[in-house]
Design brief:
The chain is α/β, with parallel strands linked by helices. The chain has a single domain, classed as TIM Barrel (Alpha-Beta Barrel), CATH 3.20.20.70. It has 12 helices and 8 strands. Strands 1-2-3-4-5-6-7-8 form an 8-stranded parallel barrel, surrounded by 8 helices. Helix 6 links the parallel strand 5 and strand 6. Helix 6 runs parallel beside helix 8. The longest helix is centred in the last third of the chain and has 21 residues. About 40% of the residues are buried. The site of pyridoxine-5'-phosphate has 19 residues, from strand 8 and helix 10. Pyridoxine-5'-phosphate binds next to strand 8 and helix 10.
């Protein structure tokens, strides 16, 4: 069964908009867990635009599920990671000017650095996942730099219009099969919503979906615990929620 990692960066975004102490992503993570989150994901960006170092330290102490730390492939982040010992690290590309992570890693142009970084973190006993586009060459490169996991970027699928969505879904399915035959374990995420998540959650072999923006958005209407509970149902029982998804669509029109 696919598990759900809840990305809470956008809770920190609201706090940072006023540089204050509320809402506190650490408290909210506990509500996400009560709603059924199997893990909590945070992205500690180099510019600290949302999640802060203090959040990482407190989340490590308080959450009862798994902590997945997304970070750039830098020495600073590697040191922070090894010190704080998340349950998994997901290496993502990072550009200061971007609003959110825009695409998968460019492994070829950073192969030496990634090999050292992945090796050092895994030697410290922390599994490393690489956020990549769902292409065979990226999977092969992930293996070459020593990663044991990949997170497939679902952004193209999420952004595709209806007549391209099936092709993007097939691309994801083929990437999962290829990853498995290479011995890589697979997560996926980015841009998934209550409306588009079910076909991805139905793909055998994806162990966890990391989902943030849509859950935090829905939480404004129904509260975080319920928003997570609703998403958990879509992820664990995909294609069984037609009435619920239709009711969301009605509210949007
Ligand atoms: N996975 C990765 C690697 C990400 O960078 C993000 C966004 O921070 C997500 C998943 C979650 O994306 P979204 O907020 O669009 O659900």
């Amino acid at each position: 069964m696919t598990s759900l990692g809840v990305n809470i960066d956008h809770i920190a975004n609201v706090r940072q908009a006023r540089q204050t102490t509320e809402p506190d992503p650490v408290q909210m993570a506990l509500l996400a867990e009560l709603g059924g989150a199997d893990g909590i994901t945070i992205h500690l960006r180099e510019d600290r635009r949302h999640i802060q170092d203090r959040d990482l330290i407190l989340l490590r102490e308080t959450i009862q599920t798994r902590l997945n730390l997304e970070m750039a492939a830098t020495k600073e982040m590697m040191d922070i990671c090894i010190k704080n010992r998340p349950d998994m690290v997901t290496i993502v590309p990072e550009r200061r000017e971007e609003v959110t992570t825009e695409g998968g890693l460019d492994i070829s142009n950073n192969q030496k650095n990634l090999t050292i970084l992945v090796g050092s973190i895994q030697e410290a006993g922390i599994p490393v996942s690489l956020f990549i586009d769902p292409f065979l060459d990226q999977l092969e490169k992930s293996l070459e730099v020593g990663a044991t996991w990949v997170e497939l970027h679902t952004g193209k699928y999420a952004d595709a219009d209806w007549n391209n969505q099936t092709a993007e879904l097939s691309r994801l399915k083929e990437a999962v099969t290829a990853a498995q035959s290479l011995g890589l374990r697979v997560n996926a995420g980015h841009g998934l919503t209550y409306q588009n998540v079910e076909p991805v959650a139905s793909i055998d072999g994806i162990e966890e979906l990391n989902i943030g923006h849509t859950i935090v958005s829905r939480a404004i209407a129904v509260g975080l615990k319920d928003a997570v509970q609703e998403m958990k149902r879509l992820v664990t029982e995909p294609r069984n929620n037609k009435l619920f998804v239709e009711s969301l669509n009605k509210n949007h029109s």
